[in-house]
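Recall the central idea of this unit: under ordinary conditions, the amino acid sequence of a chain determines the structure it adopts. In this exercise we apply that idea directly, starting from the sequence alone.
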Amino acid sequence: MKRMNNVTEFILLGLTQDPDLKKLLFIVCLVIYLITLAGNTLISVTIFISPALATPMYFFLSYLSIIDGFYSSSIAPKMIYDLISERSSISFNGCMTQLFAEHFFAGAEIILLIAMAYDRYVAICKPLHYMTIMNRSVCVSLVVAAGIVGFVHGMIQTTFIAQLPFCGPNTINHFICDLIPILELACTDTHTLGPLIAANSGSLCLLIFSMLVASYIAILHSLRKHSAEGRHKALSTCASHVSVVFLFFVPCSYLYVRPMTSFPIDKIVSVFYTLVTPLLNPLIYALRNEDVKKVIKKLLGQIRTHCG
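Accordingly, the structure predicted from this sequence is:
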């Protein structure tokens, strides 16, 4: 059946309609976005060029930083521009592209977080077999799998939405094209379709979050056999991972593991996972990891010396 669509563009209401608040938010969001790009780029470049960080854990961290940078870039620039634009609109195809990018990078990050948790599990619970299990081909395969899963997840979400009929109105009460606000504009009954679409994200969030929690419980259980120094180092590393997991999955669960209805707080949650989480991830790993901090300080020192 051919999809009926009289809508060629969507109007985004954005974060607020207050002109003064929009100017303030423009500055704040722009600064956060630039720091996010700089932080994630610094970590990924540092890991790629440093032999001291050539381990599976940092290999995954470098790609997490890359994904965070692209994920934020798929949403933040448009949101920031709209804060100073007189008319905030996005074409239908542009909206679908943004929806795909958002779920592509989010799906890829989920699998990468699983890979990082598995890496820590093997390192702590099976240290003698670590380099055999987490060899280069396995690490590359896990990163490729993250990309494939992210692509499939994004295509499923976008295909479902793109096939819906839209005949007006075309105003989205949000600053991004996301599932719930777009579904509310469809000229069809989405009471059945909505939960099916959300389940693709909601069930993925719950399933993966449960798996990650179980893996870290197993890690904590095995730490009883380690020395005090070994426990401290392992707990420090795991604390960074757990922090990132919670930063990612708490907003994800709130948005998708619930009835398909918009709430005023949705915009705040979306800002958090769009801007704040990609900003905090590099800070968490850099500030809590002595190896990363040492290499970054050495790299910045070399840059200063070269420039001076």
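The longest strand covers residues 9-12.
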